[in-house]
What we know:
Layout: E1 2-4, H1 9-24, E2 32-34, H2 38-46, E3 54-57, E4 60-64, H3 69-82
Parallel strand pairs: 1-2
Antiparallel strand pairs: 1-3, 3-4
Amino acid sequence: MLLTSYGCTPCLRVKRILNELQVEMPDLCVQEVEFKSVSGTNLSVKNNVLYPPAIFLEGRLLAKGKIDAEKVIAAIRESRESS
């Protein structure tokens, strides 16, 4: 899940990274949640996310704020290998 906000430049960068990863992993499902929506607000409060973007993997916060693409990609690959 990707917590984003309209017009957020870092969010667009993370979206591109995840889109590229979907080419390698076509069954990777990325659900976007608007930061200011009710569910986005609930997620951000529960996980202490002060601003987008934030990535959740299997219901847990994986990364937020300034996101390190290599770490995110490695974590997603590792998660899929262990499934």
